[in-house]
Automatic annotation (TrEMBL):
This protein's record includes keyword Transcription regulation: yes
Listed InterPro entries: HTH_LacI, LacI/GalR-like_sensor, Lambda_DNA-bd_dom_sf, Peripla_BP_I
GO MF annotations in UniProt: DNA-binding transcription factor activity; transcription cis-regulatory region binding
Annotated keywords: DNA-binding, Transcription, Transcription regulation
Residue span, HTH lacI-type domain: 5-59
Signal peptide feature range: none
The protein's name in its UniProt record: LacI family transcriptional regulator
Pfam family of the protein (one): Peripla_BP_3
Organism, scientific name: Martelella mediterranea
Length: 333
């Protein structure tokens, strides 16, 4: 087996010191351009492969940013991952990915891993049921965090770190208001619950908007964030409600299941049945009919979380404003 080419081999080939070769290969501007070119040419001809891990160790850093997400079977987390990957790569960093599957034990294991490998920063979308105590026990050393951290998409009450989120109460209010303005009086909230800040706040916003409009509180049907749950719950409700009805869904994923249930029951969405989602995933504009939803600006959330996690004394922003995107799944009675 051929011996690995090292900086010493390049130094010997070019007649320069090892330190000069190392600096020049990293593009140190103190060296003339022709010298850098000569060193890089020698490195290529000798078959030198740059050892990024060793370089990071010499500089006492890993150049990695840890990103911890929920369940990738939910397309919203794939969208988050793409945004995070783009943002991290634009900064010349590498991504260390953790998937919790909404399990706090898996989340804890990943946080310990991020600390052990020496990640520069952590972007965390907290798993279901995460508390301040869970995070402090792993991430806090005395009065400071062991790793620069920003939470995003979901918040954790009492955790002292930047938390980059949408105004989820407003999201719920926008969803309910759209259905009320369309003429609906028989409203049902499907999905969510109290295990995450987004779920609790969206539901509470919708209920408040409906009650303040002088209407009866909506039917509340908490459950998992899945197409299957949306389909099953809407099928059940449609079997006993033959008149107008509006389904306000915690997420687009649930709403897609509701649309399928309406089709299976022979109900025409956009006529006497309305379906409203939340998140504005890419696929929902191609649903039949296209889904009315609440747009959540993931790109802005992830970019701001990255800034917050890598910038000392970053000012904590207000919650971002959601936007109603009206499409054909919302009827006008």
């Amino acid at each position: 087996m051929r011996a690995r080419v090292t900086l010493k081999d390049i130094a010997r080939e070019t007649g320069l010191s090892v330190s000069s070769v190392s600096l020049a290969l990293r593009g140190d501007t103190r060296f003339p351009a022709d010298t850098i070119a000569r060193i890089r040419t020698a490195a290529t001809s000798l078959g030198y492969v740059y050892n990024q891990a060793a370089a990071d160790l010499r500089m006492s850093r890993t150049n990695q940013v840890a990103v911890c997400l929920g369940d990738l079977t939910n397309p919203i987390f794939n969208d988050m991952l793409l945004e995070a990957e783009t943002e991290i790569e634009s900064r010349g960093k590498r991504l260390l990915l953790g998937i919790t599957r909404e399990n706090r034990a898996r989340q804890a294991d990943f946080l310990h891993q991020a600390l052990q490998v020496g990640c520069e920063a952590l972007l965390l979308c907290p798993a279901y049921g995460t508390t301040c105590t869970d995070l402090d026990a792993i991430l806090r050393v005395g009065d400071t965090l062991a790793i620069s951290t920003a939470l995003f998409f979901r918040s954790v009450e009492g955790f002292d770190a930047p938390q980059i989120v949408m105004d989820e109460v407003r999201s719920g209010r926008l969803s309910a208001r759209a259905a009320i303005d369309a003429g609906h009086r028989n409203l049902h909230w499907i999905g969510g619950g109290r295990q995450t800040s987004a779920a609790f706040q969206r539901q509470s916003g919708a209920v408040a908007e409906i009650v303040e409009a002088g209407l009866a509180p909506p039917g509340l049907h908490p459950g998992p964030t899945s197409r299957a749950y949306g389909f099953a719950k809407a099928t059940e409700l449609l079997a006993t409600h033959r008149g107008e009805i509006a389904f306000l869904c915690f997420s687009d994923l649930i709403a897609m299941g509701v649309l399928a249930a309406c089709h299976a029951a022979g109900r025409r969405v956009g006529h006497d049945v309305s379906v409203v989602g939340c998140d504005d995933m890419d696929e929902v504009r191609y649903a039949i009919p296209p889904l009315t939803t609440i747009r959540i600006d993931l790109k802005h959330i992830v970019a701001t979380a990255m800034q917050a996690a890598t910038t000392p004394d970053f000012p904590r922003p207000e919650a971002f404003e959601p936007v109603l995107i009206q499409r054909e799944s919302l009827c006008s009675l």
